[in-house]
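**Folding the chain**
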Amino acid sequence: MAVPGAQEFVPESHDLGTLAAAARGCRGCGLYRDAEQTVFGAGPTSAKLMLVGEQPGDQEDRAGQPFVGPAGRLLDKALIAAEVDRGDVYVTNVVKHFKFTRAAGSKRRIHKTPSRTEVVACRPWLFAELTAVAPEVVVLLGATAAKALMGSDFRLTAHRGEVLELSDEAAAALPGSDPYLLATPHPSSVLRGPSDKRDAAFAALVEDLHTAVGLLA
């Protein structure tokens, strides 16, 4: 069955409150059926820096807020190390519903990467947030977020830390928007990585955030 996409649910508004309220009723893909709720972005409309992740996790789905679980706490730590006040940053995800699976006989919800079809279906909400906030710099946290704005052929390992531009497709959907883009691994990858390499991975994340801050006018 074809995925209708979120576009028909996105109002013509630059008000984040209006967008967030509308997103709660989105039926642009099937992920809303199992998730607890829509998890929209959070932060000031005036934010110069936007951080974009993949999708909400288990704790975010229950709380209705982005980046409040383990990855969010590590991100907070990295922002502090990079001398960034999270209160000045707009934080969101490409996909607004938690996609998960369960092992046989278990109630534990295990993260499942959204498909490209689901990313594209949900992406109009991200485009609306980018238009409303108009950040100067966007940090793409992880491959899913990076490919959403850079195209499906984008390789994070090849372009990590580089100053990037929107793909032609994303640029066409965001006329007049020309933020600096920077891609870095998702904070969850630091948590999942080998214990003897976590300090180095965390330091690299902080360095990328420093680079992003340095791009602000």
